[in-house]
Design a protein that fits this description.
By secondary structure, the chain is an all-alpha fold. It is built from 19 helices and no strands. The longest helix is centred in the last third of the chain and has 32 residues.
């Protein structure tokens, strides 16, 4: 077989590279110079002209490649280097005053700059992801900015998050040791919150904190030596952000309840004496301000999760009563108020409704709790008349009908007996 003979290549011959394979040199400085020249012609006092320039320049300048550099210029006036200072280039002019940092800090001007960014990213959609990356970078640099620059950036950040340009979670990058320790992270966060409250209202701010997963990390923005509940309350109340304090308390309460539930699960699983369990649960509840009706609800959930329930309806009733009888002293310890008792009855009702095999067991559980002094006559009557849930209402009311009638008759006889005694007196 004949073999293909390779053609000889002359020494020193230049191999031509296809144009599409040539890689253009990365030149952010050249990009910056072109942008600075265009912004100078537009002028800082005419942001409409700035928007028009940025719109048309996108067809000539490579925004895809230099998107973050473009945002550096529009925010800080030039290319940023790690630490937050402007990159220098000999004697060359490397900064523009057509930027947020050189603009007046009043909200009208800030909103005008907001429109520049909105129009730019609306025109070039691919810049949206780059802008999020830019914010994750630039917020880490705030230590390198002046106080006035941080205020302007804080106000713009509030506008950008509220209009959806960046997610609320971008604020979490501020939880950085060197920013937290110096109080810069907290000051910046407060500027964002106050601006947001004034511009968009408190409900919008609360929604964003939950959406961004910030509600549970608010204390992390405080310097370590200032992380106390009292200081937290004072700082946010001073800024008129009482709703943030309430949100924080609610979040802290939820965490405390989760911890209490885990503790209770472990203690019951280990077979600890109920006397010890009651003491420890009461200490945790008091320390964290968890009300009794929430504690008794939590106890019900944990106790019912302890058992492997029989799948046969005719057997589960007896099993449930035997299981619950072990814990009646635990329930009684935290059902000392009418609200706690009624809450427990509602949890039992909802549980039986949600687990079909328990539908016919409801009244038996209530009777057990009545006989062991967990539930009182008054609360059972209140539940029957007005306090019940709509879940399984007809069936459960019917189950309790005879017992309620007996309670009512006993109550009437008791009142009649008291009247007779008064007449004899």
């Amino acid at each position: 077989m004949s073999q293909k003979i390779e053609k000889p290549i002359l020494s020193g011959q230049r191999i031509k590279t296809r144009k599409r394979d040539e890689k253009e040199k990365y030149d952010p400085s050249g990009f910056r110079d072109a942008v600075l020249q265009g912004l100078a012609k537009a002028g800082a006092n005419d942001l409409d002209a700035v928007s028009k320039y940025l719109d048309t320049a996108g067809s000539k300048l490579d925004y895809r490649r230099y998107g973050e550099a473009l945002f550096d210029i529009l925010i800080a006036g030039g290319l940023l280097v790690p630490g937050g200072s402007i990159a220098q280039d000999g004697d060359k002019d490397v900064k523009t005053n057509v930027c947020i940092f050189d603009a007046p800090k009043d909200m009208e001007t800030m909103k005008n700059y907001e429109q520049v960014f909105i129009k730019l990213m609306r025109r070039y959609k691919y810049l949206e992801k780059m802008f999020e990356d830019e914010m994750n970078k630039i917020l880490v640099y705030i230590k390198g900015f002046g106080e006035e620059e941080r205020i302007k950036l804080g106000r713009m950040t509030a506008l950008w998050i509220s209009n959806g340009s960046v997610p609320p979670s971008v604020l979490l990058v501020l939880i950085n040791e060197h920013l937290v320790k110096d109080g810069l992270a907290l000051d910046f966060l407060l500027e964002v919150f106050v601006t947001w409250k004034n511009e968009k209202g408190v409900p919008s701010l609360m929604t964003a904190l939950k959406k961004g997963g910030i509600e549970g990390r608010l204390m992390d923005f405080f310097p370590p030596n200032k992380r106390t509940e009292e200081n937290f309350k004072n700082v946010f109340e001073e800024k008129g952000l009482l709703d943030v304090v309430k949100l924080h308390k609610a979040q802290a309460s939820q965490e405390a309840k989760r911890d209490l539930q885990k503790q209770l699960e472990e203690e019951l699983g280990e077979g600890r004496s109920l006397k010890e369990v009651i003491t420890e649960v009461r200490e945790v509840a008091t320390r964290n301000g968890i009300p009794e009706h929430e504690v008794v609800s939590l106890i019900w959930n944990v106790v019912m999760a302890q058992a492997e329930w029989n799948k046969k309806e005719e057997l589960v009733g007896e099993q449930a009563l035997k299981h619950l009888k072990q814990y009646t002293t635990l329930f009684a310890a935290f059902a000392s108020t009418s609200k706690a008792e009624l809450t427990l009855m509602l949890r039992v009702q909802e549980y039986c409704y949600g687990n079909m095999n328990f539908m016919k067991v409801f009244h038996k559980i209530i009777m057990l709790f009545y006989r062991t002094d967990v539930l009182s006559e008054e609360v059972i009557l209140k539940w029957y008349k007005e306090g019940h849930s709509v879940k399984g209402k007809l069936m459960f009311l019917d189950q309790m009908k005879k017992f309620v009638e007996w309670l009512q008759n006993a109550e009437e006889e008791s009142e009649s007996g008291e009247d007779e005694e008064e007449e004899e007196d």
